[in-house]
Structures are given as structure tokens and as C-alpha cells.
């Protein structure tokens, strides 16, 4: 009989990293195997116009040379029979919750880091067998119960577990011990180490550090001199050392909302526009601050007689953009509110929140080219507001008559706009 205890160190941890393989495509295959099983498929938002970007693709498609981030038109030239599928985020969340529940049955120490991956600390899970036995049972159950393939890494820390799960794909199980690091990792280029991006790898090359082994042997003080506190992490990572713990308490907001009671009742779409834009901008900023995207927008309207109505709509794709949120809120107002009825309070609430890295944000070709500039602008505006206050940056559309007058009054004295009821909130919900 196998001695289970020999696999569990007297001190230290045993960590699993579970990584679902081609998750979005695998979900569609599990839902409709007759249509998708074993075929070249790709999830892409702009399916009809074929101007979009491949979000993910099946392994059958990858073997043909199709990859994530590729333009749909190029993918179709490579494989004219490629099956394009429109994203279904609610379906992905359903399957994500399901595989997490299976994983949770082996340990309460589960940290979901994205929609398709999680860490498990199984140090106290001896009753289920050895770490390889637990990994095999978990992988088998996810396939049998959900029809989804996954790869699992087994290691003494999160960093090595993450790297191990990438060693055998799809549907593999790999063990990576500290003593294996020199033979398995040190001959690989630095950019193959999880957490080291292309820019950092280029900087390392300029320092004469090309491989993970060279990184492991590098002088820590020199690394700190060039990379700051990250230099110490680079040195530890090169040697397979990671002190991070599995955090089962990682949570995120279920919704982000902002409402304002207006200084005077507003009537009609024209008067509501700057208020809705202001609200949309504020909730979008809070969304970005938490690293989230929203799949739905809810508009709240309260009348002078205190009657409150709410109207919601789903977005075509998750977003962090104030522009998208504003358009949805404006559309709801125009569709559901009579032009001559006064409004006392307005609110915008974002729903269906997920971590940005979890979500397939599908862009058409034009937006794909603009996106880096848009994100840079958002970061710059957020930074200015963090430092100088909410009103440090205002777009022209946010300015009501009172804002414009106050801007003129304060311009000569160089004073800043102070918050009023328009930018304040009677109720914030996270």
C-alpha cells in the first residue's frame, strides 16, 4: 500500500494549479458535442462582420496555425472551415462555477484567479490520497461531470504549480519540485517564466541574462538596482522560490453603483445627458480601479413623488469603458422615460462584474487598433483624478450650465471645482 505521508512535507505546502484547456471552446463543445467535438473552432465576437479578433480557439484549430489574438479574416484564410462562435459569458460563468465546486470538494483552500483557473492548497487533504491521486481524481471528475479537459500542476508553491500546469497540455498532470528547477527550467529563456513579460525579458537580455538559469545566478543587488523591488522577486523566481499563499478570501464586487439626488428636477433627455455621462464616468473609474469589467448596466430613476423605477440591459460584450456604459444608460432613459416627466434622482449601476483578465473583451478591427490609446488615456485620467480630485478632468459633455458658470468664475482665481450634488453620491453600492 502506498505511504501517503511521504508526499506531504513536514513543513511547507502542496499546491495544485488547475488550468482549464481552451476553456471557452471546450465549454461550447461540452454543450453541443455533435456540432463542435474535435473540430476547429474559435470564439470571436464580431462573427457576422468577420472583422474581429480570435479570443480563443480549440486545439484542433491551433494545430492548423490559428492562435489567440489573430484577426478572424486571417484565421479564415488559414482554415476556411473554421467554426466561429459568438461569446456566451453567462455560459462560461456557469461552467466555471461548476468546476470550482468540484475542486472545492478536495479543500476549502481554493483561490480562483480567473474564470478558468484556480489554486488549491491540498497540504491538509491526505484523506483523499497522494497529490498525484488527488490531481487525477479531480481531472477525471471535471471531464466526466462537465466534459471539460484541464491540465494540473503539482508543486510546493504557487509559482511552480502554475509553471507545471503549462508543461503538459491539453489534459496533462505535471509535478515540479524545487530540486527539479535546474534541470527543467534553467535552460529556458526568461520570458517562459510566469510573471516575466517581453519588456522585462528584453531588459534582462541587455544585462546579459538570457536564460532562467542565468537569472537564478544573477547578483540580487544588481537586479534590484535595475528593477527595484521586483529585482528580488526575479532572483527568487529564477530559483523557483515563492512565498505567496493560497487566498480563499479573494472576492470582488457584485455590482458598482452611483446615484445622485439632483439640485433641481430635470426634464427630458437633453437635461439628463450630462448627469448620466458624469455617473457613467464615475462608475467606470471605480470599475477600472478594481480591475473589473461589466456585462450589464442598470438605470435608476426616481420621481419627485419618490416613485423609483429601474431598467437593465445586457451589453454586447463586457466593458470598462465609460463611453459604452453611458450609451447603454442613455438608451434606457430614452426608451423608458417620457420626455415631459420630471426626474428627482438618477443612478447608474454596473452588473455582471468579472475580473478583466477573465473576460473575452471582443473588439472589431478598428477598436483593436485604438484600444491601447484608449487604455492609456483612461490610466492618465484616473491618475489625475486620484491626485487632484474627481473634477480634475471633465469632458465637455459632463458640464451642466452650473458647472460652466462656476468654471468661468473660478478660472481667473485658479481655484478648483468642488464636489456638489452632481458628483456626490447619496448611495454607493459595491
UniProtKB/TrEMBL annotation:
Residues 15-197 form the UmuC domain. This is DNA polymerase IV. GO terms for molecular function: DNA-directed DNA polymerase activity. Binds 2 magnesium ions per subunit. The active site is at 117. Pfam families: IMS, IMS_C, IMS_HHH. Its main location: cytoplasm. SUPFAM superfamilies: DNA/RNA polymerases, Lesion bypass DNA polymerase (Y-family), little finger domain. It comes from Paenibacillus phytohabitans. It is found in: Cytoplasm. InterPro entries: DNA/RNA_pol_sf (IPR043502), DNA_pol_Y-fam_lit_finger_sf (IPR036775), DNA_pol_Y-fam_little_finger (IPR017961), DNA_polymerase-Y (IPR050116), DNApol_IV (IPR022880), PolY_HhH_motif (IPR024728), Rev_trsase/Diguanyl_cyclase (IPR043128), UmuC (IPR001126). Belongs to the DNA polymerase type-Y family. Its cofactor is Mg(2+). The record marks 24 as: Substrate discrimination. The lineage of its organism: Bacteria, Bacillati, Bacillota, Bacilli, Bacillales. Poorly processive, error-prone DNA polymerase involved in untargeted mutagenesis. Copies undamaged DNA at stalled replication forks, which arise in vivo from mismatched or misaligned primer ends. These misaligned primers can be extended by PolIV. Exhibits no 3'-5' exonuclease (proofreading) activity. May be involved in translesional synthesis, in conjunction with the beta clamp from PolIII. Its EC number is 2.7.7.7. It catalyses: DNA(n) + a 2'-deoxyribonucleoside 5'-triphosphate = DNA(n+1) + diphosphate. It is an enzyme of class 2 (transferase). Mg(2+) binds at residues 19, 116.
